[in-house]
Specification:
This protein is mainly alpha-helical. Helices cover about 60% and strands about 0% of the residues. The N and C termini lie far apart (about 20 Å).
């Protein structure tokens, strides 16, 4: 799964996906949950 696909599927920006992958604290809880759900790691 690519960053572009996750960004498109979650409607989060690609920089947000990258920040999440890097463990940056600037990612909102809402966006973090969207990403986790897209990856099948949260329900």
């Amino acid at each position: 799964m690519t960053q572009d696909y996750v960004a498109l599927f979650t409607r989060a920006s690609k920089p947000t996906i990258i920040a999440f992958e890097q463990g940056k604290e600037t990612v909102t809880v809402k966006n973090a949950l969207k990403i986790l759900k897209a990856l099948g790691l949260a329900s």
